[in-house]
Amino acid sequence: MSRLYFDFDDGRSRFKDDEGMDFPNAEAGRTEALKTLAEIAKDAIPRSDHQAISAVMRDDSGATVYSAEVTVSGEWHKPPS
Q1: Are 12 and 47 in contact (CB under 8 A)?
Q2: Is the pTM of this model over 0.90?
Q3: In which domain, by residue range, is 45 found?
Q4: Between the N and C ends of the chain, which has fewer C-beta atoms within 10 Å?
């Protein structure tokens, strides 16, 4: 069993996990990090045409075990009317 901590950053605000969650292994923690990152990205309203949302998974010692990032990038091809 591993206690893992998840930090998220959307460029406007940061969430640092001080409690953590127990997982059977790091792979299960990775799955949780990706699911949560997808949920955050789904609900986020980009403030511009380019936005990145990142997740960092840490172990009990504070060392980064896994990280992921979702990037939204848009570009007008014709000015909006």
Answers
A1: yes
A2: no
A3: 2-73
A4: C
